[in-house]
Amino acid sequence: MGTYRMMSRTMPDIVVCVKQTVDVYQLKPHPETLAPQLSQAQWKNSDFDLNAVEEAVRIKEKSGGKVVVVSVGPEVKQLLVRECLAMGADEAYILSDPSLAQADGAATAKALAAVIKTASPKWDIILCGEASLDQNAYQTGPRLAEIFNVPHVSYVNKLEVGDRVLKAWRAVEDGVEVVSCSLPAVVTVGLEINTPRLPSLLMIRAAQKKPLKELSLNDVGLTKDDLMPRAETLEVKALKTERRRQVFEGKVEELAEKLAERIIAHMGGRR
Amino acid sequence: MKVLVAGEKPEQVITTANYAKSLNPAQVVAAAFKPFTENELAMLGGAGVEKLIHIPEKYLASGAAASAAALAELVKKLDPALVLIYASKKGVEICGRLAQRLDAAYASEAFAVEKGEKGFVAKRLVLGGGYVATVSLNSKPALASVKVSASETSQGMKPAVEEFDPGIDAPAVEVLETIKPEKTRVDLEKASLIVSVGRGFKKKEDLSLAEELAKLIGAEIGCSRPISGDLKWLEEERHIGLSGKRVRPNLYIALGISGQVQHLVGMRDSKTVIAVNIDPNAPMATESDYYFVADLYKILPLTIEILKKKLGS
């Protein structure tokens, strides 16, 4: 264990990749076309990415160092980036370009990597949510690790950062794998690793003064052609389920009777 | 058209190969890191695989980077039109790195892959699982990690087995220990009756109500993500939803589950859905065949008593 204990001299530079997505919980499909009504949707920071911000801030609180937030997308909203700064991140770099509206995993990773190379080239850890709320593709972390030719650990639900090394607990089908790798490394986290803090008014105010820089494609050495998706989305349509949708309300005694009947009718042969 | 199928475990390679058959490929080659038993080889042959390429297990053991590096070398050698990797958690992270390495079009966790006009077309769930995205993969090779279930399997001529060690280095991750789940494994994917619990339960002890019902009718217990994740009242392997199990029982009984899209995607293929929830407007209402608006704590004890009498136990 000794080697993995938090050591003050590590002072890691941490980059957190945060995606802004539509709030899928509020999203409604068009009644006829079944297409998602994106223009009416609210935007938010992708859930798991806030777990990544929280984890980065916790590492900083223990070991020192710096937390840099990076966000790329068709139209990155500063207000949402400020939320991450209010949680305790130190600075933020954003890249907005309309071509990223069609981005696949390859284009997203390419844009993020270019921003990271410009904004925080000497990073020790890149933290990402394991997947995004909208695409759920599980690609960004592994792709970034491949671009930078470093190890990555996905699906992490507990993380310890030591001196040039990390130890992580990751949830896979066979159980929890306890793994270790050298830094620099990419780590992707899920919902279970922590509960993201809700910033206080004081923290929100302090965040207004933190550096937030808008970069252009040119600033990071990219062209629109670089961001052409390799995988192209042709169509998105809501899933329709055919259900009877019978609703039972009323006295609980009667409901219990009906519930028991329905269970028996559909449970198949008795044990 | 040549298809390369791969997976973390032998049964996953067999499932993926069986799925690849639906594309009528001219040739299916399988790649695996783990050794196959004689029976598994026959199953792989039954799935139409002519050749199994065995990559030393050390690549899988040193993490996704090494696994992807080895597979990339194999892809360059074989030049397949399509690479399908079973979407286990490790399979998905390997495929992500592999796609980046090969600069190939990639769809993750696809539930279907078809031949399109230009190349291959993959279907996958997006936006919380409530929507299907159709994604065109116009590169050679095209890549998909596939979350497909085993179709009919049969035995066949055992494929030839070849060894392939590319001798390539990649950043390593060392596994120090694997902590197995404490409880005996449950196979929710194969369960025909499932009683599933959600945030409608206020305390862990209260789950005994659901457990009693499940025992009475011979059902397995499942849950929504907060129960296994945030609250840790049940094991992760009982989590049904987008990042958990996808189940298809004859009867799914949802107790105190509001029905967030992330959960619905895991239970949508159930034949019949009965739900109990105190909120008449919860999304689960439109995803149920029979929706009971009631307080779990009142209706369940009564229902259990009635079932005991009617089932004679």
CATH architecture of the largest domain in chain B: 3-Layer(aba) Sandwich
**Cα radius of gyration of chain A in angstroms:** 22 Å
Strand content of chain A: 25-35%
Structural class of chain B: alpha/beta
Number of domains of chain A: 1
Structural summary, described in words:
The complex is a heterodimer of chains A (271) and B (313). Helix content of chain A is 27%, strand content 28%. Chain A starts with 12 loop residues before the first strand and ends in a 5-residue tail after the last helix. The longest helix of chain A is centred in the N-terminal third of the chain and has 17 residues, at 47-63. Chain A has helices at 47-63, 78-87, 105-119, 140-148, 201-207, 252-266; strands at 13-17, 20-22, 43-45, 66-73, 91-96, 125-129, 152-161, 165-172, 175-182, 185-189, 212-215, 231-238, 246-248. The model of chain A is unreliable at 1-8 (pLDDT under 50). In chain B, the strands form 2 sheets. Chain B has a 9-stranded mixed β-sheet with strand order 7-6-5-8-4-1-2-3-9, with helices on both faces. Chain B has 2 domains: 2-163, 3-Layer(aba) Sandwich (Rossmann fold); 188-311, TPP-binding domain (Rossmann fold, 3-Layer(aba) Sandwich). Chain B has helices at 10-20, 38-46, 57-61, 64-78, 89-102, 207-217, 225-228, 261-267, 296-311; strands at 2-7, 27-32, 49-54, 82-86, 106-115, 120-126, 131-137, 142-146, 160-163, 174-179, 193-197, 220-223, 251-255, 272-277, 290-293. The radius of gyration of chain B is 22 Å and the shape is elongated. Chains A and B meet through helix 3, helix 4, strand 7, strand 8 and strand 9 of A and helix 4, helix 5, strand 5, strand 6 and strand 7 of B. Chain B: Keywords: Electron transport, FAD, Flavoprotein, Transport.
State the main characteristics.
heterodimer; A: Rossmann fold; nine-stranded mixed beta sheet; 6 helices; B: 313 residues; Rossmann fold; 9 helices
Short description:
Chain A has helices at 47-63, 78-87, 105-119, 140-148, 201-207, 252-266, and strands spanning 13-17, 20-22, 43-45, 66-73, 91-96, 125-129, 152-161, 165-172, 175-182, 185-189, 212-215, 231-238, 246-248. By secondary structure, chain A is α/β, with parallel strands linked by helices.
